[in-house]
Amino acid sequence: MTEKKEHPESSISVMLVDDDPNIRKLISKHLKHERYEVQSFGNAEDCLKAFKKSPVDIVITDLHLPKMNGIELLSKIKQLKTITEVIIISGDADKDVAINALHQGAFDLFEKPIVMRKISATIQRTVRYQDVMRKCNQLGAQVELMTNREEERWNCFIGNSKVVNDVLAQVDNLQKNDKISVLIRGESGTGKELIAHAIHYGSTRSKKPIVPINCSAIPDELAESMFFGHIKGSFTGATVDRKGCFEEADEGTLFLDEIGDMPPAIQIKLLRILEDEIVMPVGATKGRKVNVRIIAATNSDLEQKVSDGEFREDLYYRLARFAINIPPLRDRKEDIPLLVDFFVAKISGEMGIATPTITDQFHHEMSKRSFAGNVRELRNMVERAMIICSGSELDVEHLYSAGDLIGASSSTPAVGLSDIKIPDDLRDAEVWLIKRAIDRANGNISEAARILGITRAKIYRHV
Prior knowledge:
The chain is α/β, with parallel strands linked by helices. 47% of the residues lie in helices and 13% in strands. It has helices spanning 21-33, 44-53, 70-79, 95-104, 116-139, 141-152, 162-176, 192-201, 220-228, 245-248, 264-276, 302-307, 313-319, 336-351, 360-368, 374-388, 402-407, 426-440, 445-452, 456-462, and strands at residues 13-17, 37-41, 58-62, 85-90, 108-111, 182-185, 210-214, 229-230, 242-243, 253-257, 278-279, 288-289, 293-298, 323-325, 357-358, 393-394.
């Protein structure tokens, strides 16, 4: 897909660092033509000295420089804690070092030979990102969290199906009653946490925190301290008093994800807290009053766990006084085209590109799929297709599985890929796709791995 050409409405300042005067002259001339304020330097030391006196919006630096290299310059700029973003220019043989630069916080990187339009497009994307960051910093941490949640809370529930409208009606009722406990049931990827946040931020508790806890990720030996807190000296290593998650969520909401994996000893104490609203920290002799709404979620069969003796029956009925069953995507396939349209538009905005036209064949193919991973899988599939797409039309040919390509053992092209300009050799095609995913993720290797459906280790092996 092509970047929309833009010129800065207000002056954007850029520092350019390269020991090759010809490259400095070439890039500087191009950026000045684009109406950016440009300072150029032949070494990192002079750049850093000038930067400390007067920080700029963007620094573009070559990776290999005399004395201080580009990564060292990046690190020193990041230590100054400005909103400045750094773009790295590297040679073809610098892949390992370039990936390290992304880990160190580089916004993006380019390989030589330099393509000017790519530099312009990346600067535009960087400026948009900085604008968003400035706005977020002004709001403060809690307001920022609330805004993000409010914006995204219905991402997984876009649609006109009856099951979606039923869920929305239940959420609306629960927002009006902020004392009743809620149990949210649904498969992985259906949006249980988003529903929990929607209930919280639509209630009178919205100005207080919602504290999420993944019950399956807490070791048994730490569970009591995590949930209820402890006092100094109560056990080896307890050097200070510590609040548990119940006290952290006081007057707000405690979201207990994967409640079915909660240790039995904690289940008993949770039931007691629900009954008398008193928390007893480890080592304490006196309890502490709390006012917390409990929203629990599970993708397991709690009734079966009760029958098997793995979950307390009395706690189950206390939590399930009001239950929301979130439908899997296969039960609301009529919503898939709307979800596709939503995510294509949203991801286009994140990528800073014009929203592509979606063909009927693309919608039809997506609607045929079962999506075992539900909306999360649908979004990842749309995101991969948009990474592969290089034109203004998103078609069925872009729907091949990036995960299958990475794990393939044959150089035979995937069906329907004849019009996609990717390298013929499988190894080169894998590297090409991974690099596009890293670019899409702004250098975040974990995010790139999520988009491709592979592990971080596989990315490092291929790039």
